[in-house]
Amino acid sequence: MLIALMAKDKAGALQTRKDNRDAHLAYIKDTGVVAQAGPLLDSAGEMCGSLVILDVEDMGTAESWAANDPYAKAGLFASVELVRWNKVIG
Question: Is residue 90 in some structural domain?
Answer without folding.
Answer: no
